[in-house]
Every structure is written in structure tokens, then in C-alpha cells.
Fold these 2 entries.
Entry 1:
Amino acid sequence: LAAGLALPGVAGAQDGETTTIGVSIPAATHGWTGGVNFHAQEAIDSLEETYPNLDFVLATAGDPGKQVSDVEDMMATRDIDALVILPFESDPLTGPVKRVADAGKFVTVVDRGLAQEGIEDLYVAGDNTAFGRVAGEYFKERMPDGGKIVVLRGIPTTIDNERVEAFQAAIEGSGVEIVGMEHGDWNRDKAFEVMQDFLSKNAEIDAVWASDDDMALGAIEAINQSGREADMWVLGGAGMKQMIERVKSGDAMVPADVTYPPAMIATAIRLTAARFVSNAPMEGRFIIDSVLVTPENADQYYYPDSPF
Amino acid sequence: MITAPAPGGPRATTGERTAPIIEARGVRKSFGPVEVLHGIDFALRPGEVHALVGENGAGKSTLMKCLTGYQPVTGGEIWLRGEPVRFSSSDEAERAGVVLIHQEFNLAEQLSAEANIFLGRELKKGVFLDWKTMRRRASELLDELATPIDTRRPVSSLSVSQKQMVEIAKALARDARVLVMDEPTAVLTSREAEVLFEQISRLKAEGVVILYTSHKLDEIVRIADEVTVLRDGSFISNRPASKTSTDTMARDMVGRELSDLFPPKGEPRRLAPALEVERFSVPGHARDISFKLAKGEVLGFAGLVGAGRTELMEGIMGLRESAGTIRVNGDPIRVASPRDAVRHGLSYLTEDRKGRGLLLEYGMRENLTLLGLDRFSKIFVDEAAERKALDTAVERFDIRGASREGRVGNLSGGNQQKLLLAKTMLVDPDIVILDEPTRGIDIGTKQQIYRFIHDLAEEGRAVIVISSEMSEVIGLCHRVVVMRSGRLAGELTGAEITEEAIVRRAMGLHSEPLEEVA
Amino acid sequence: MSSAETRPSTPREKHGRRLDFHVWGPVIALVALVLFGMSLNDQFLSSGNVTNVLARSAFIGIIAVGATFVITIGGLDLSVGSMSAFLAGVTIIVLNALVPVLGIGWGSILVGMVACLLLGLAAGFVNGILITVGRIEAFIVTLGTLGIFRSLVIWLADGGTLSLNFELREVYRPVYYGGMAGIAWPIIVFALVAIVGEIVMRKTAYGRHAAAIGSNDQVARYSAIPVERVRLVTYMLQGMLVGIATIMYVPRLGSASSTTGLLWELEAIAAVIIGGTVLKGGFGRVWGTVVGVLILSLIDNILNLTDLVSPYLNGAIQGVIIILAVVLQRGRKGAA
Amino acid sequence: MSSAETRPSTPREKHGRRLDFHVWGPVIALVALVLFGMSLNDQFLSSGNVTNVLARSAFIGIIAVGATFVITIGGLDLSVGSMSAFLAGVTIIVLNALVPVLGIGWGSILVGMVACLLLGLAAGFVNGILITVGRIEAFIVTLGTLGIFRSLVIWLADGGTLSLNFELREVYRPVYYGGMAGIAWPIIVFALVAIVGEIVMRKTAYGRHAAAIGSNDQVARYSAIPVERVRLVTYMLQGMLVGIATIMYVPRLGSASSTTGLLWELEAIAAVIIGGTVLKGGFGRVWGTVVGVLILSLIDNILNLTDLVSPYLNGAIQGVIIILAVVLQRGRKGAA
Ligand SMILES: Nc1ncnc2c1ncn2[C@@H]1O[C@H](COP(=O)(O)OP(=O)(O)OP(=O)(O)O)[C@@H](O)[C@H]1O
Ligand SMILES: Nc1ncnc2c1ncn2[C@@H]1O[C@H](COP(=O)(O)OP(=O)(O)OP(=O)(O)O)[C@@H](O)[C@H]1O
Ligand SMILES: [Mg+2]
Ligand SMILES: [Mg+2]
């Protein structure tokens, strides 16, 4: 199906008339989505630079409803040839995106899979399960004879659930015990306050899984304030600049990080664009795995010019 | 003999008299298309108490507002101490010593009495408010006005009459040279009025000029030196009070001879009791009150301020928590809400027209039908019917407004009162309770209203009149119940109804066992 | 105090001037937006886009009609957004539960709709009772229930998303995407609600009473208006309208989560006030609210029509336009 | 209408009863929360925890003191949250820019602080001018500026996070984490602001004028109060207090992003009303606001210290407690 539909797009690109690619992403409501916004913007600028006959439509949404509206608007008023979407949530977007695909547009889904298989032509995914699993395994390995940890969760969403469940599954059976788990909403301030309270509540904490670098930074502040830096270390996630720096510099408190690169949106946009400017048949799934960043491999994951 | 105004100032014959402090010269005032003052000339002279009288809507308040900078004149000039002035705000006027006491209250409800009295003129110690002095001055002022209330109480918890006293205190605190009083006694009982008159003579002695308006003409004769009459926004006459009488004033005001004020009472045809109230109490205001009211009877309620007459009636109407039995036409009724009361044929005219009577933001029509709206609506409100009702009401109660459409807040005080009366009567009740029905109403209309009350009784309806105007109680009622601090202090019938008798009971100088009452 | 008093200028003049601007202000703003949209993109007036904009206005719109009444009585309801999320969540649970019983079909869906409406009424009743009988500031009550409904839906969804059974969704879809005579259902329902609302506000005793209470509840009491009952009814009406909006909303997203209906309360109130209803109560205008809602959703739509501004600045543009839309009726409002 | 009037019960009695409850209600609620907290966790009263809670309250607290005045004049400011995000963002940019000029040290930081305050005043001035001169409903103006400030900060941060130069931060840190005589600076500043606020409200002509305007601005105008100026000053005061709060906030995490100060406006308004200030204006109580703020941040703290309920339900608990806290002063409020 995708192959068949591919043709018009290609034709379009070849006889020099412009191809419009819609990009729909969540608004920058926390650090990671902020990164997504940045990388999307950057990719679009550079692509429009190099390929004059590529035209992009970027829309950011604060909630699923708004994102559905954005997609509708792109179809109705911008007549896009392709859609690159990072769904706010899988379920609500499944129907609308399906309609885009049915209209014969090329669809690239990023990060969060849709609720139904086989709608998208191209799937560039982060792996939330892996994100949680990798983190969990790291704890198991760092704490062979167990220990007490606290967990800062994100905004209550499916993603957060996937990550936390995978994490819990991974530490299953090990001596690692979760003594506190609260929502930090992927928000530095919230994480700071929750961590403060965890610290006053638990005399003994050996490590913190912040499940997001923004929250990690907040948590670290709280720990510094309590003067218990020596007692515990923090594992964040996503690969934020400041955190990678700390890992690189062998900071004892931040021994590692787990990647979940917001740059995946740029990859997706580039792949989609390539689909139109070259005849490369871009279909299938690109899973961007979550890897463990350690002082050894930190350099590869360090993007100094990214705001994220 | 009506003297027309000579050009270039009031009364060419003023040569020998002292120079005016403040003058209106050909003052015109229009609201939008409507002109309500058509070139008024008149002058206030040092050391005089000048009364301004006229029908409701004659333009008294408007003229006063123009003189005191609350409203810009649209024609003519105001002269102060021999020079033309243009007050751009009431503030400017006050700085020039010209202060207005509003007909409608001008107080911030949530603020304390003290805060209101000094509002915008706070006394300070450095950056801070000088509480002590302000509290002291406030209580002094209020004591002088014989209103010993706690100055920290929010104004919202005061009675209308207390509010009026606060309003007056506020003006006194602004040490005025020209003090303009718009119907200050409208909401005062005769005793409180006396207190005010003492203040007025004191101020007069201090050389303060006072412009004063009231619909209680006998007051005017007593305290005024000069009387100016307005009618429909035009100057009619100006006489020394010594050379005039209530009748002359009334004639000038209405433009015709007035027959005697009260219709002949006639013996109440003692029909079946319409309303029986037994051992009725309103916590904090009225205790264990019992009285009967017959069809075709006009029952007066007299008492001093705070006697709790209002609260008693509000209790009966289901507006306040209350205990006791109420019987209508013999059968006991349960009144949990005003709605119940109205359903049983009762209707109440509140004494606080601005706060509880009318929606000042809305027009006459909406206000008129608000109480009896069910009568005008099946599924939808029948606006045509409403308009007809309004026409009838305007006709019947002679409500005069510059326009039908504008906010009722723009109606003159008296016309608001008439509208309120019309509203109360629209549910065509069998038992009518009127609390201060003629408050702020001109003498001509008073006569109409008295006749109207009389007719209600003739029709066999039962009427209760709460009034602080003795003459009203005496002239109108078949029977008078006197209340004193929440209790019955006696009941008077027929010939017994004299001012002296009422006052004695109201003040507790004369006590009688309850049996006689119930 | 009612804001109409706040100018010393002579009321009647003001009245006149105010009326004009006050009545036409929002409309002018709306027209201006439409013209601007047309100038930007020729697809703007395409039936497709118009349908989209109107249909998506329906949710906020239906809710805002209720908010118009609530604000007219001098009240406030901050809970509508999360109430709708909560209703959506429960409705979805009910529907999924009904599948085994009534099967995939309109039977289940109708039952679900009824459940949604009743729950909406109940939710409004809770708000109303706490405000009238409990005598608690409406702001506090509805701020409280905002939190409660929101976290109830999160709890029901286990922090994730509640999604409607897929086959059932297919049956249900037409309620949002289908229509009659080429007009989408949400638009039709919105129109009906608005028209009925306008009539109720203008022509019924209830509407008159609502305004009276908002204008001066003491006068209302003394005029034998059952103040507390009218208030209660108004909050229940609001709840019911949230229910209707939710019935339209569920088939659109087929799911409910922590983000459903986020900040709808602000949008609804904004629409009401842009429409010329006085925030302090005493004067409400349903059709104005409709205009307000359209203005708000046109802004979003127009921002999607072009790449004029960085998406980061969308919020700023919205803010500016909202203020501009109201500047046009400045004569009226008592600023505070 | 003065809400104090809305009950039929007898004024005098009521006055008495109301006063008690109204004054003590919030305090009782606060004490109850503290006792509850103690019973749950012995760490609750540890100086560490107490310091945390108080220091956290400082931001909302300082802002809420301003909100008390804004609400007292019958106004509303929804923009405070995003205003503070905006201020934080600009301050950070300024500070980073100053490093090369003034170097790492208090010099730069002081300049940054001043900039933050001035910008706060300016922001408040914008709100105030639009509301007074522009005569636009405060709700609309500040809803608009809410959007504007918020998206300006996102734009400045490129959607990401603005972080303060690291060394400079080390110098700046003590402003949040340091203290005097064992009391953290934020707590001291909050206390000062609250005390001064209370005095201004009670003991100065300005405070009294603010109440008068909120109670009945027509009367205020007739009483020679410069109504518009007082309003303008009040919004600028609010802006300045947001500035002060931001000065305390920046050193805490040394960053500003789209999430900074999210929904602080709601928290601030809630605190003000829990504290017994009347939403419709005319009566304000700063110390009550302080109690309200403490109640709100204690709720969070207690919820974190215990695992009684699923974290999903935190919002619900908050809602319930907020309502309960106000139930205690029911006598007072005119419900609507
Ligand atoms: N702000 C206003 N807008 C429009 N018309 C007004 C306004 N104020 C007063 N009027 C009209 O001007 C006329 C005079 O009103 P005014 O209040 O001066 O009468 P008044 O002599 O004080 O009557 P009363 O004895 O009842 O107080 C009335 O017809 C009134 O409707
Ligand atoms: N001494 C007082 N202390 C406190 N409040 C009082 C006092 N006297 C009266 N009030 C207030 O005034 C009202 C009762 O006085 P009011 O004047 O209405 O009584 P009344 O018998 O109706 O007299 P009138 O109707 O002639 O004014 C109540 O609202 C009460 O709060
Ligand atoms: Mg008058
Ligand atoms: Mg009375």
C-alpha cells in the first residue's frame, strides 16, 4: 500500500513543484518536548534551506484535542503530502491519523505508536519499555546486594506507565526496594519539592530513579541542599546536555544516564523528506533504542549546541 | 402670588441683602436628549437655611448635584463667592467647602462606619492612618447625632436610618461652609430628625449655609429661612419661610390647590380577621408578638428606629428566621419563603428601596414585574403584557421618569418609591404590608397614596402601614400597634390614637399588660 | 457593584454609546478575523475547514452557554474542563462494560449517553449544593471539584488513557463526524443549545431571575425569587451541558486521559466575557458567548493557516487577539 | 453586593458569629493539618521539613500577598504565574550577559535583581494600564498577558530551558538556600512582605482606598479617591511582588522554562480566598492569605510524606481539603 501511494509524492518532488510536509508535535510543556520542538525546528530550517521545493508546516499542541485539530487543519487548508506526527497520546490520534493515511498521504509516526497497527508508512520510535528496562537493569547491576531507592514518575500517561512497569519488572527479584514513588510531572520544580519530602521522610535512600533529566536536576538540587550527596546517586533519562556533561566528568552522583533522544523527531523529518527528494523507499520501523550512557561512551551523546 | 425670577439673578429686590455665597445662574441640565433643569436661578446667602422643595422629579437632587460638582451643568453657571466656578469633580467642590449629603446612600457597604466617614479624607500620622483620632472623632460625630453605634461595624449591618446618620456624619466631618442636604430626614423618625435639626441650628450659628430639601413640609416651615419651589425643572417661587405656609408651598409645588391630605377614615367595617399573628418571634429583633388584622382595616405600626417593626414583618414574610403561628383567613399557614407568603396573598414593600427593592441596573418593566413574574409567563415572559402593566402602573401611581428605557437608578428617589409600590401591588395581594410607604414622596403624591391605601381598605383588603411619620399613622390608621425594642408596647384604637399616646408607649413611659394587646 | 455604574458620565448617553459598541464589538472582531483568514489562505472558507472549526467549537461552545448562565447569576464554575474529562472517562468505562451485555450497537451507545447526561447533572448538583446549602464561594467549590474530577479520571485510567472499544467507536463515530444535510452533528447540537439558551435567557422567567440574582441577590430574595433553587438549577444546567458536550466529544477522540478538557474552563469563561457578559453577574448574553467561542477557535485555526510566526509565539498572538476583541467593547466594562 | 448581606439571619448576632468563624476558620484548618501531619510522620516537624515547606511557600506566598490587594480592589490577575516565568527567563539572560561585563559576583547579581524588579513593575504597569485606561475586564487583560508572557519565555528558551551560568549560580545560591540565624532567606523575605502587606492593608490610606474601590468604586470616586491611580498602583504592586518572588526563585534551580510558575495564579487566588478575602472585592486580609498559602503547601507536603492514597488521587485530596478549609468560614461568604 505504502509503495503504491509513494508515487505521486515522488512525481511531485521531481517536476519541481513543492511538496508540503506537515509536522505535528506536542507543545514544549516540559524539558523533553522542549527538545523535540528545538530539533524539529532545526531540522525543518536546514531542510527548507537545502531543498527549496520542500515546504513544512509545523504545529504544536498542548493537548490531544488541539493536536487533532492541527492535523485536521493541515489536511483542510494546507493540503500536505506527508505528515510527521509525534502523537500526544496514542489513542485519540489513531483515528485522525488513519484518516490522513487513508487520504493517501505519507504518514510518519514518531515515538508513540498508534493504537492500531499498520496505519503509518514510517515509524521512528523511541522505546519506552527499553527506557525503563535499561534503567532497571542498571540499578540491579549497581546494587548487587540491594538497596532503598525512590522513584520520580512523569506526568500520568501511558508512556510513564510503560516506563515504570518495565523498570519494576527489571528490578524484580533483586534486593532493590522502592521506598517512595511520586509524580514529578517531568518538571524540575515539582521534582525538587517531591525529592525534598522524600529526603525528610526516608532516613536511608541509596539511589534515585528520576526517569527524566529535568526531574533529575531538580532532585539533585534537593539532595545537595540536604547535604546527603555522598549517600546516593541519581539516574535520569533522555540525555539532556547538562546531565551528559556530568556523566562525562565522572560525577559520582550522576554515574550514568539513559538516552531517549528528542532528536528522533529530526531523524523522522529527515527520513520523510528524503522520501520525497530522493527516491529512497522509506518505509518500516526505525527503533531508536534507549542506551546507557556511561563516562566511557558519553562523548557520542553530547550535543553542546542543543538547548536540551 | 408667584414671583417670577428677574433676569440676572434671583429677585431683583435683593439689593439690600447680603451677597450670596453660592448661586445658580440660568442652570440647565440635560441627560442625553432630555432636559430636566430649564434655567434655574437662585442664591444661598450666609447664615441662612434655604429649603428647596418640589414634586418628585422636579429636579431638586439634580440641581444639588450640579451645585456640588457631582454633575456638570449643560447650561448656565454656578457662582461661588462672587466668581463663576466650574467644579470638575465633587472633590473640587468639597475643597471649596461645598458638600452634599446624598438622597441615595453613598457609602461603601463593606467598610466600617468610621472608614466611610473619613473616606478619601483620612487623618494620618506620618504614613499611617491615625486610627485613634478617627475613631474618636467618628464616635463623637455619631454621638452628636444620637446614633451610638460601634464605629467598627460594617455599614452593611446598619439600618437605613443609621446609614443616613453615618452619611450625615461623613458630611459634617468634611467641615463644610456650604452644606447641601438632599432629603436627610426621609429615613429618619421624628425623634432622630429633631437631633438633626439641632445640628442644623448649630451649624447655622457657625455661619454654615445650608441648602435643604425634604417632602415633610412642616419641617421646612420650622427650620428654613428661605423657601424656593421648583416644578418640572423650572423655578417657581422664592419666599422667606416666615411669609409662607405648607399650603402655599404645596400649591406652588403641584400647581393646584390641595384638598386635605388624608381621606376620611370612616369606621372599619369589622369583617373577619384576615391575618392573625400569635406569639411570633424574630430572633434578635422581635419577641413574642401577637396581633390581629381584619379585612378592610388599616393597621399602623409605630415605634422608634430599631424597634424591630421591619424585622417583624420580614419574619412574617419568610425573609427572616422566625417562630410562631400565622393564620390567614383563619387557617394557619407555613411561611418558609417569601414565595409562600405571596402565595397566601401577602405582599411586602421594603423600607430599603435601593438595597432590597429595585434592580437599579434594570429598566422599569423588569423591576415592575419581578415580584409577580409568574403572572406574566406561561413558558415565556409575555413582554407585551408587561408593557401594558407598566403603562397602567405609570398611570395609576403617576411615575415620572425622563424615559421608560433607562435604568431605574436614574429615576428620582420619589419615583423609584412609586415604582416600588407599583411592584408590590402587582401581585394584587389581600394583605398588604407597607414599610415606610411614603418615604421620599412629595406631598401631592402622598395624598394620592393615602387615598390609594384608603381604597385598598374599602375594597376589603387588609393593610399594615409601618411609618415613622406620626401624622401618617394618625391620619391613616384605624388601629395602631406600638413596638418598643422588639416587643409590643401597646395598641391604640380610634380616638386614642394621638401623637402623645404613641410616643409615650414607643419610649416605654407607659406600660400596659399584654392581654389588652392580643 | 455592577460595572455599569462605574463611569461618572451621564448614564443615558453612555447607555447609547455602550449599547452600540457593546453589541457590535465582538461581531466586528469576528468579522475581522474571518477577513484576515480569507486573506491568508483560500482554503479558509472551504466547507471542509469551516466544518472543522465549527465542529470543534461545539464542545467549548456548549459548555460556554452553561457558563453564561453561571456567570450571569454572579457565580463561576472552574470545574467544567475536568468534569468533562471525568464524564468522558466514566462514559467510556460504561460503554466498554456494556459491549458484552448489549453488544456493539446503538443500544449500548444510547445507554452510555444517558449515563453521561445523568452523571453531568449529578456533578453539577454537587457543585450547586456545596455553593448554595454549603454557602462556600463558588470559586473555591469548583476549584476543589476541578482537582477532584481531574484526579478521579487519572485514577480510573490508572494514570494512562481510557480508550473506547474499537468496534463501538466505529458505530459511535458518526455522532461527531456524521451529520444531517451536510451539517455535522456537533454543529447542529451546538446551534440548538445556543438558540435554546438565548431564548431561555431572554424570554423565560428563569432567565430573568438569573439576571436579577446576579444583579442584586437581596432584591431577588425580597422579590420572592427562590434564589438558592435558581442557583442550584443553574449549576445543574451547567453540568448537563458539560454532559452533552462530552457525548459529542467521546467519539472524536475515543479516549479520556489526564489531558482531556484541560483548561476548557478558562476558554469557556473567556468566551463568555468576550461575548459581553459581565463577569460580576447581572447581565448575560448567550449569542455573544457563541461569537466569543468562534473567535477563540478561529484564532487557533488561523495560526495553523500560515507559518507567519514561530509556533512558540502562538500563545502570545492568542493573548493579543483576545484583548483586542474586547477593546472594541470598552465603553461597557467596569474595569477593576 | 456586599456578600455579608445575603443571609436573612439577624445582623447583630450574625455579625458576632461570622466574625469568629471567619477569623478563625483558616487558622483552625491550618492547625488541624499540622496535627494530622504530626500524627502521620515524626519527621513532619523536623526543622528540615518545616524549612522546606515554608521556603517553598515563599514564591506563591509573596505573589499571593499582591493578589490579596488586586482582589480587594475587585480585580483579578491571572498572569502572575507566567509573568514570573517570563521574569525568571529575562533575569537569567541578563545575568548570563552580565558575566563578561561585571564578572562572576554580587555586582552582576544585584544588577540582575534590579532588572527583575523593574521588569516586574513594567509588566504590572502593562496590565494596569490596559485595565484602567483601556477599561478592559481584568480577567481578559490578564488572561491575555498570561498567554503572552508564557509564550515569550518559551520563545526566549527556544522551547527548552534557560539555565543560569554555573559559577554565577554558585554565588547566587545562598539567596535561596542560605539564611540568617538559621532561618532561610525566602522565609525571611516572605515574612517581611506579609507583615508590610498586612500593615499597608490595615493601617494606610492606600489599603483603605483599595477596599473602598472594591466595595463600590462609584462611592470611592465620589469620596475623592483617585480610583484609576489606585488600581494602576495595585497592579504594579502585584508585578513588583512577582519580581521579588522571582528573585528568590531563580537561585533555587537556576533555570526557567515553559513549566516555570505553571498555574501559580490559581494557587495564589485560592490561597487568598481560603484566607477569607472576598473574591468580589471590598474586603482583604493579608494574614489570612498567608494562612491560605501555608495550608496549600502543607497539603502537598503531607501527601508526599505518606503513602496513604494512590498518588493519582492527590488532586482529589487537595480539592477536598481546600473545600473543607473554607467550610469553616461559611457564615461569611455570599455564595453565588
Ligand atoms: N442620571 C440620570 N439620567 C437620566 N435622567 C436622570 C438622571 N438623574 C435624574 N434624572 C431625571 O431628572 C429628573 C429630576 O430628577 P431629580 O432626582 O432631580 O428629582 P428630585 O426633585 O430629586 O425628585 P425626588 O423628590 O423624588 O428626589 C427626573 O425625571 C429623573 O428621572
Ligand atoms: N441599636 C441597634 N444596634 C444595631 N443594629 C440596629 C440597632 N437598631 C437598629 N438596628 C438595625 O436596624 C434594623 C432595625 O432597625 P429598623 O430601623 O429597621 O427598625 P424599624 O422598627 O423597622 O424602624 P424603622 O422601620 O422605622 O427604621 C436592623 O437591620 C438592625 O440591624
Ligand atoms: Mg431627589
Ligand atoms: Mg424599618
Entry 2:
Amino acid sequence: MSTILFVFSRPPHGSINAQEGLDALLMGSAFTTCSVLFVGDGLMQLVAGQSTDDLGTKNFSLSFGALKDYGVTRIACSKPDLLARGLNKDDFLIEVESLNAAAMQAFIRNHDKVLNF
Amino acid sequence: MSTILFVFSRPPHGSINAQEGLDALLMGSAFTTCSVLFVGDGLMQLVAGQSTDDLGTKNFSLSFGALKDYGVTRIACSKPDLLARGLNKDDFLIEVESLNAAAMQAFIRNHDKVLNF
Amino acid sequence: MNFAIVVHGAPYSSEACLSALKFAKAVLASGHSINRVFFYHDGVHTANSLIAPPQDEAPVSEQWQEFGTGNNIELIACIASCLRRGILDETEADRYEKSGSNLAPGFTISGLGQLIDASINADRVVTFGV
Amino acid sequence: MNFAIVVHGAPYSSEACLSALKFAKAVLASGHSINRVFFYHDGVHTANSLIAPPQDEAPVSEQWQEFGTGNNIELIACIASCLRRGILDETEADRYEKSGSNLAPGFTISGLGQLIDASINADRVVTFGV
Amino acid sequence: MIVHTINKVSALGLCNNLIAEDDKVVLLEDGVYLGLQPLPFLVFAIRFDVDARGLGGLLAAHTESIDYSDFVRLCAEADKVCSWF
Amino acid sequence: MIVHTINKVSALGLCNNLIAEDDKVVLLEDGVYLGLQPLPFLVFAIRFDVDARGLGGLLAAHTESIDYSDFVRLCAEADKVCSWF
């Protein structure tokens, strides 16, 4: 069975890309082995304390807490992109591996398919 | 009567923003005094020799030649953005003023309204 | 003071449509007026009557309808943008021999001249882009 | 070799929809096959039957219909993306009590599972994003 | 005085040459991420967008959170509004 | 070998750390503007997109113009395709 790596590169809330990517990941993990890599402003999806009450949109960041329960195998982010944004992993709402360039390339190589959002 | 400055910042063909911006400029020039400023990858709208025959989309760059006939007052681009792209004005299909930062700020100040595309 | 508001973003796909609505409400709440809201580019998707969003997402399109109708504010969807994107009123549906129309109540399909007219006559123009 | 193709961009608004079509045609011309084309995000606008583009612009949506029907290739539009964006078949129009439907012939509305299934079973997945 | 609105990080590159010394910048939507670093302008960020993204405690000291009524007031005080996206 | 597609200039920033030495990069749509400068990868650009933008004579020497059948062949030769947008 093909394994799938989901790559998330868009910030949350400004467009629905992030939310529709997460929907696809949750669906994917019901069918096969899936992992996820956050790159660029996609890292912003993981920032803790998101509160959309006043904005009036869905706070889908709460679903990230359930990724492990859904069976998502590895949850990782780009270390260079983390540093470039002045963030550290304590700012995130879940535990995430941070990978350097070589480790990210290996991560991609070790999956059969890549779906980008 | 309000004067309008149109600001074009998107490259052509990848999305319809550039084409719909041009449509708005042509309409605007029928009603009032209009000028246009190209910034960022919007400068790429002006590159000569665009040929969309194989792509199968509309080659709206041909309409830029008619801007003066439509009464568009001034046609200008960002000099820093021109240099950053390694382009010079000979690469363009029409004659365009290139403005430095101070001149662009004055250009915006001297119009009543700004419409960005 | 009189505002013209221009919306380039589709509901859900982009936040622009929701931001513009919040801004428009604040304009009225501040005692100013709005001469027209012009939906251009993907913004015309706001006028699609067939949108059926999930229960847990804000019904942005419906909220615009209520805002326009409730405050008697013109909501204009650009005709050229609409035709390219499949938003039709009954007249256009007939003209192009389409099976039906899908323009939501409260919206009017009209030409780009309405954008220029609104821009010229407003004191301020604010665009919500994508 | 078997390809799955994923389209995120709406016709006209984005070139992605047109690039995907050119790619799909080249896949078949090269002797490969396509197991499914999955329209997600704004890509589902391709399935809107009410699009009436100007004469001088390529009718991308119609070209997809012809491609799918002519080559017997599944064109699936994601149901969740469709509902948010106002693309409905008759079943969904009835369910949400809407005045009509606008799904173009040749397209089928179905769930996200179809994206995963196509990705797993294809030899290659290629996404055309925005 | 001109109000410049910025709704995404990449749009700063379009306008940073065009913002005059006495202009004001309103960050909204994904543009609020620009409020994390100091910028050489007078910068305001829409609070709803800041909160939605969990950035309340992360904004640079000089980035002022505002609501939509403040945004409208800034637009009314300005000579015109220029929207970058 | 992985084929990476890039369809806009800003997407290069997302993937430049993720492209391995033996990978190949296909520029399409607005991504072909990246073909104007030398890039440290094996770079191909879709000819239809290059021509539509008037870039025929402006591409960097090492950027190779290809058509869609070449693009399909590169995908078939690769282990997988990764799309950046």
C-alpha cells in the first residue's frame, strides 16, 4: 500500500488551503500510512492559542491535537523555516520534529506519494 | 472629477488578475483621468514578444499599445523593481517612465484614488 | 464620509470577502455611508446562491445578502467576472442558453463602469484583494 | 504507467486548470493512462455548467468535459469543496433545498476518499496548485 | 497621509518603496504575520486576525492591535487608501 | 530522482531546501520567471508558458525549454512528483 506524505505550506485562516489540506490528511490516514511536513508559512498552522471566535471562522487548529489518534505516523516541520520565523517548538500546540534539509529530503524519499497543499 | 491611479502588481497569464486590471483601466479612462503604475512582477505584463497561440489564452498584452489612445495619462513602472528583475525598458512593448521611490510616492499622492490589481 | 468597497476574494477560498464585510459593517457603525460594494475577480463568487457551507463555518455569502438588503446598499457583481465564473442572473442565463441562474437575492450583475463610478464618487475606496 | 491528476485552480482565475488539461492530454498521447482527475479547492469551479466565457478565451471547462467524456476518464469534484463554492448536482441541490443545480456533464461529485484512493493506486500523482 | 493595507507577507515587497514617512500601514488577514518583526513604518494590525492566528503575545512592541472601527477611522483620516495583496 | 514542479516565483522559497542533487525542477505557469536567473538545480521550463510571457530570449543558458510530452516523460522517469505552488 502506497504511503503518502502531506506537505502543508500555507498559513491558516487567510485562505481555506490549510483547512482543506488537513481534511485530506485526516481522510488519508484512514486509508493508508500518512505523515505530514510543515514548510514555509505552513508552520503557522501549528501556533498555539489560535482563537477564531471574533473572526467567526472555524478554529481547525484544534484538530491537530488528534493527528496521532488518527494514526498520522510522523509530524515534522522545516527547521530552517522555523528559525527564519523566530519561532521555536514551544510556540506550537503539538509536538513536532524539526528537520534539517537533508532529513526533509530523506522524509520525501521515504514516502511513495507526496500531496502538497 | 476624481483622478484614479491604477497599480498593477501581478504577472500576466498565471492568473486573470492582470487582464481584469487592464479591463478596469480601459473602462476608467473612458470616465476620468487615469494613470497606471506597474510594480513587482506586474512589470512582466509589459514584456515584448508575448505569444499565447500555443497556450490558447488571450494575448491581452497587445492592448497596452492602445493605452495612450484611450487617454491614459501617464504610464510608469517601479525603477527598483525593474532593476531587481534584470530588465531594461528596451524589453518592454511600450514606452514607460521608470520612477524611483520618491517619484512613485509623489505619483500616488497626486491622484485622488488608487485601485490595485 | 462616503466609502466605496471593492471585493476581489471568494468566500471561504479567501478571507478577503469576510474582512470586507466586517469593514463595511464598521463603516456604517461609525456613522459613515457606503455608496456601493463592487465584487470583482473571484469576489463575484459571493453572489452564488447555490453555496451550502458547513454548519460550523460562517455563511459569509448570506451575511453579505442580509447586510446589503438590510441597509439598502448596492451589491454589484461585475458581469465579465460573473460570466467567466458561472454566476448568472435570469437575463444572462437566457442569453447564453444555460439551464438555470444562480444569482443570490440582494446582488445585481452590472458592468465595470459601476466600479469606476463608485470610485470617482466616493470619498474613499478600499479594496479587499487576494 | 498510471497517473492521478489533482487540480486546485479554477478556470480563468488561475492557469492551473489549463496546465492540468494540457498535461492530461500529453499523458494519454504518451501512451500512459489516467486513473482519475480529482478537482479540489477552487478546482471544483471547473465543474460549473453556467460558465459562459468570452469568445476570445479558451473554454477550459468545456474542454475538460470533452476530454473526460471522450476518453472515459473520471472527473471527480470534491463534495466538501463544491458545497462551500456553490457547485451542486441534483441530489445535493435537493438536500440543501436550493433552486437548481449546476454540475456540468462529465463531472461527478464525490468524497475526499476518491483523492486518497487515486493517489494510492496511481503510479504517479501530479498536483496543479494555486 | 495615506493608509496602506497589507493582507499577505509577500505583498510587503510590492509596497515597501511606496510608503512615505507619514503614511500608516494596516496589517490584516495573513498580513498580520508581518507584525512579528519591527517594520520601519507606523504599523497597526487587525486584532481579530492577530487572535485567530495565535499571535497576541508575539507581536513586535511597536505593532498596535486595532479593531475594525479604528481601521475605518484611519481610512477616514487618510487622504486615500492603497491596498496591497 | 524526484521531479519538483514550481508554478510561481514565491514557491521557490518553500522548496529550495528540499530539492536533492539528482532531482529535477520543472518550471510552469508563472514559475517560468525563475528560469531567467541561474538556479543550482537541473531546470526545465514549459515552452508554452515561456512563449506566452515573451521570455524566449531571456532564459538563463542552463534553463531547458520543454513541451508537455517531455514533462510527462520526466514524471514517468522520476520516483515521484512534488508540486510547489
